[in-house]
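ok so I'm stuck.
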Amino acid sequence: MEINEYIVEQMVDPTGIISGDRYEFRLYFTVDEEDELYAEGGTGLRVIFAVEGEKEWIATYHFFERSTEKPLDFEMEDDEKEIVLAFCKTHAEG
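replied:
not stuck anymore, here's the structure
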């Protein structure tokens, strides 16, 4: 998985219920036409990245078709999770 483009925004919890910080990432990447994640309009991954003290993790995620925002029902593989987590740790605003 090679991330070509991304958008990150810190999420605001006006209620103060959620401890720590949350960031919404929209990661865009290209995949081969033979790959099950391939979408003609492009493929994206929405990630909610959580930070609380020294702990950093992926709270939730979903793949989507970039051109339509339609969710795609796929899970990340372990190696993909490692790549995405490292990317989020490096690119979270803070």
